[in-house]
Automatic annotation (TrEMBL):
<dbReference type="InterPro" id="IPR036249">
    <property type="entry name" value="Thioredoxin-like_sf"/>
</dbReference>
<dbReference type="GO" id="GO:0015036">
    <property type="term" value="F:disulfide oxidoreductase activity"/>
</dbReference>
<keyword id="KW-0812">Transmembrane</keyword>
<dbReference type="InterPro" id="IPR013766">
    <property type="entry name" value="Thioredoxin_domain"/>
</dbReference>
<keyword id="KW-0472">Membrane</keyword>
<keyword id="KW-0732">Signal</keyword>
<dbReference type="GO" id="GO:0007420">
    <property type="term" value="P:brain development"/>
</dbReference>
<feature type="domain" description="Thioredoxin">
    <location>
        <begin position="70"/>
        <end position="207"/>
    </location>
</feature>
<keyword id="KW-1133">Transmembrane helix</keyword>
<protein>
    <submittedName>
        <fullName>Thioredoxin-related transmembrane protein 2 isoform X2</fullName>
    </submittedName>
</protein>
<feature type="region of interest" description="Disordered">
    <location>
        <begin position="210"/>
        <end position="243"/>
    </location>
</feature>
<dbReference type="Pfam" id="PF00085">
    <property type="entry name" value="Thioredoxin"/>
</dbReference>
<dbReference type="GO" id="GO:0031966">
    <property type="term" value="C:mitochondrial membrane"/>
</dbReference>
<feature type="transmembrane region" description="Helical">
    <location>
        <begin position="52"/>
        <end position="72"/>
    </location>
</feature>
<dbReference type="InterPro" id="IPR039101">
    <property type="entry name" value="TMX2"/>
</dbReference>
<dbReference type="InterPro" id="IPR037463">
    <property type="entry name" value="TMX2_thioredoxin_dom"/>
</dbReference>
Amino acid sequence: MREVEILMFLSAIVMMKNRRSITVEQHVGNIFMFSKVANAILFFRLDIRMGLLYLILCLVFLMTCKPPLYMGPEYIKYFNNKTIDEEIEGDQRVSWIVEFFANWSSECQSFAPIYADLSLKYNCAGLKFGKVDVGRYQEVSTKYKVSTSPLTKQLPTLILFQGGKEVLRRPQIDKKGRAVSWGFSEENVIREFNLNELFQKAKKLSKQREGAAMEPVMEENIRAPDTVQSGDGLANGESKKDK
């Protein structure tokens, strides 16, 4: 009877955990994770030695069999602790959406293909996508106030920078310093960061910059034939005088 209560309790936790899951892989991963917890509890109740052996095997599996990293197509620039400020503050007209992530975070791994797909759809000259590994560069996590604790709910964190300054952040941080629950789905990112409007404004900006760059070239091309014609006329005039 006790075992049934344990399984029912863990099943309720799985259902609550899956409410925040985005992909099928996350749902399956949650089920397997809590199944291992249930097995460990049942093994310890049956025999402590079997429970310890099972726990050791689970730890070895977690340490040796890490989930694969996303290796698909993307238009994302990867920052380090030195380049992030240079890029964000470099061109004030460019908007940056930067993901603060850690390779060990399962939520970051699940969000990686979604973020890559968004970069393929919305990246342009005036709107760019970046990533920085705050698990590796602790000074970046400290500066931008992104917690890298194993129990944190701030990974991943998306921040929109405009004019070199932070404009919007998800998940938000409340007054107590805790992350407000937020689903990292493609629809939520597009809606919260208003990507469609940002993309249209960025495209207009890039067209204006291209037009401004083309004007000197067009003027030079227009002046070039006049110079050639005047040169021909001068040469003809000299030949007539000579004659």
